[in-house]
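User: Can you fold this complex?
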Amino acid sequence: MAVMTGLAFVYVALPVAVALYLLFPAGARPGALLGFSLAYYLLVGPEMLPYMLAVAAADLAALAIMARYDHNQKTREACLIFSVAKNLGAILVFQGMATRWQAGPETALGLYVVTLSGLGCVLEAYRRQIPKDINPIHFALYCFFFPRLAAGPLITYRDFVPQLEQSGATPGQMGKGFCIFLQGAVKFRLLGEGLHIFYDTLRHIPPEEVSVLGVWTGILALGLSVYLRFSGCADMARGIGGMLGLTLPKNFDYPYQAKSVGDFFARFNFSLTGYIREVLGPRYADGLIGLLVVGVASGLWFGLSVGRLVWGIYLALFLLLERRLYPGFVKRAHPVFGRVYALTVILLSFAMFGANSLGEIAQTVTIMFGFGDLPLQSDRLGYLLASNRLLLIAGVILATSALTKTGAFLKTRIPAGATAVLAFIASLILLVLLSAFLL
Amino acid sequence: MKRYFAIIAALALLAIPAFALGRGTAAMPLPARAVLEGGLPEVVESHIAQSFPGRDALTGWSLAIRVLGGQREYNQIFISGDELIPVLDPPLDYQVSENTGAILEFASQSRARVYTMIIPTVSAIRQQSLPSFFLGQSVFNQRQFIDQVYAEMLGGGVSTVDAYSALLEHREQYIFYRTENNLTSLGGFHLYHALGGHLDGMARPSLQRYDIEHVMYGFFGDLYLRSPFQNARGDILSIFRYRRTPPREYIVTIHRGGQTRTYHTLFPLHKLDLEGREMDIFMGGLGAKTVITASSLPFSSNLLVIGDHTALAFVPFLANHYRTVTLLDLSQVGEEEIYAVALDIGRDFYNQILIAYSIETYMHYPYPARILSLLPQPGEYWEY
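Assistant: Here's the predicted assembly.
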């Protein structure tokens, strides 16, 4: 997933993509961007490319058959069923392959984006939400648009493709897109990755130095790193999209400020939640199955592992409790109580997220609540906390809307020209900082 | 304003790769091959990183920010005040066993007396500079580790030299460089004294018998390259010349990479002018095989030292006591050097053989075990 933040990406791949966008006339841009996206995929994930192309080609074939037999409902249904079965099967098979190759639960690059985009497009065609004749280049670009491959965001075909026919990005939009990209890259690489390394260090601490506070700190670091890495990726994708004249949706909205678990899902990776609601339809989305699907899919989006599956089910259970058992309680509760409740439930959930087995989850929870007969803290924890204090503080600040609100407040007090100059300087500093840390 | 930023950003983005690619075109590997092997992004990444404008300053800034944020360890190097202390990984048991076994096998077949000296690292000797939990890991274990290895060797007839105590006794002195992973000349002097109690016929002159010359101030060594911490204090390179009238003359012959160089001094100071090669002022740097021949010496014995970079610190002192000292670095030697030294061992040219390695090399690398290549191969015999 670190493929979008290397020096080679920032200083070679990104300028090449922008140059292609600027050099080609509007009508040829989708083809140029598709060629670039496939070349990019070939370089960063060559093992999976043939499989992904086959998956997308099958969906394109299903779309063509649906268009040809537009009046035959059974054929259209068969195409939809085929696409659902094929894409879910592809996810299981390819994720299994990727897990074996990478010896970990990491998601194969672009696996979910390509399969879910293809399936979503077939569903939109089935529901007649898009024209029946699909442009193969537009469809392929929709599936393989390179900024989305790492972690989304998911977007509907009907929202994405019409943008390809609009006039291109202005220099102002490109500049703004680059700023958003830089913010995402710094969030992802400097903070998210740093916190992940911190979590990993705490996780692999020698058994004789494990402590209660050490486990809690690890859980906090994991929660922050998941948010910063994935929201950073989403920001990078949005920024690059902006530079190339395409608007991609936001995917995270300060999820740790949620007032309930339901609110958390509305703020965390919500392009996926929205996609699931779109697929299931309003009738099933709020039912038991719908909530379970939302939870499980949200967990497995980050990779196939027992811990992530349990993480999703655990949160889905709270979702269910909020919707069915005490629906009014959450709405009526004081916002502070809501936030404390949601944060506690969510923080505990990360005891499951990083685990590889049920035994590991049980062991972690036991230690967290002081039943492991372990010391409260250790010398090593003190040293590691001191070494990573800036990362933790910056992570906590960026997980809240404090900076955004401060920025908005300053905009109301400072003249527009000065704000632009400040934004310009801040972006240059971010670029230098990012380069320094990538060397 | 956004428009101007977009233009400036675009120019910067295009200028940097152009600069990086233009600066090192010759070193750029063949992209087609990298594509075929699936490693083009890594190749380009590494190339841009190496040629990035202002690389050193930017790396220093990023480290300064890390340190400001509380980080004390970077690239396996602990930052303590103004000195850089490399952190030692735990030993590789199979490697240690292989190295010890090889030395015992060699000693059992050698007619010359064999000595072993394992040299601790700065993290053990200056442990007060490290956080307390480090003491449970690499630091305390170095003493224990050396004792365990020595216990095995003593049973096999190998004499051992206690470098640990010799250095610990002088831990408050400037015996390790702050930015280079090696002993200073003073550290080398203390090891030389520790050796003096073991190697035959060696008197141990005091420090007052040496003229000490500080030939360079502000030297930044290999640790600084790996962890360019801006508060690190530069080192002083000093040479110790034994005071004698007339001065003793040495010829140093270095075999390295198929080439031979000769210096008529133990300390070729002209190396100070070569950036990045300052440590070569000690016997011209570590070669595959280095032979030091002394003139007008009353001694007639010859010493073979098999070791690593740490030998540069103490071998210049030993040169004062032998007709020849041969230093062999088994990580660099080729067949030719092996053959020549094996032949000398076979004809009893060497009176003593000293195997001296830093604990880091001994625990993690197979070089000490290569000593077996100096034994006669099956079908060959040493002359008796």
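The first strand of chain B starts at residue 73 and ends at 74. The mean pLDDT of chain B is 84.
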